[in-house]
Write a structure and sequence with these properties.
It comes from Niveibacterium microcysteis. The protein has 191 residues and is mainly beta. It has one domain. The protein is built from 1 helix and 10 strands. Strands 1, 2, 3, 4, 5, 6, 7, 8, 9 and 10 form a 10-stranded antiparallel beta sheet that branches.
């Protein structure tokens, strides 16, 4: 079954992750002409109350914060949510840059999204993800300032590079392919 991405985004916006117990991980890697980074954060909150009439679930984070979420009709298996269950929210994102020498590609932006929900009878859960790929032209390289200007299909951006030496092989006319991926997963489980 599909769970609307907007629903997950709305639910995630209601979850004050900073007030919940969270664990996080970050990874960074690079190779000639490539650089990437990825990160993940997970947080938990306990179900304090369930109001079936209004489909409102009251959560309490491990730092004591209390918040409510109204679950629309899109949330399947709502009737299985019980006081004492634990909500786990996991958010992950990654970005990668790859230099394409010679710039023979077309500037473009491609985007895809997908979402899934728990099957009937399973504990309430859902996940949504988005992947975006942008191919941009290198229009300016400023070695002194340590910046590179990229022109994508809709706009130009000047980016500061952490180590200006990484720009030594980047030339006007090259292209950069940027891949950005983000995902959020929500799961209600027993204590």
């Amino acid at each position: 079954m599909k769970l609307h991405s907007a629903l997950l985004v709305a639910l995630l916006a209601c979850v004050p992750v900073a007030g919940m117990a969270a664990d996080a991980a970050v990874a960074v890697g690079q190779a000639p002409g490539k650089v990437g980074a990825a990160g993940r954060v997970s947080a938990k909150a306990k179900v304090e109350a369930v109001d079936a009439a209004t489909r409102t679930v009251t959560f309490k984070g491990e730092k004591g914060n209390v918040f409510e979420v109204v679950a629309g009709d899109e949330v399947k298996n709502f009737d299985q949510i019980k006081v004492g269950d634990v909500l786990t929210v996991t958010y992950a994102e990654a970005i990668a840059f790859e230099l394409k020498k010679g710039g023979k590609g077309v500037r473009e932006r491609r985007e895809a999204t997908d979402a899934v929900a728990a099957a009937p009878g399973e504990k309430p859960a859902g996940a949504a993800g988005r992947r975006m790929i942008i191919v941009a032209d290198v229009t300016k390289v400023d070695h002194k300032a340590g910046t590179v200007t990229l022109r994508g299909p809709k706009q130009s951006r000047t980016l500061k590079v952490d180590d200006p030496a990484k720009l030594k092989n980047v030339k006007v006319g090259d292209q950069v392919e940027v891949t950005y991926v983000e995902a959020v997963a929500l799961e209600i489980g027993a204590k």
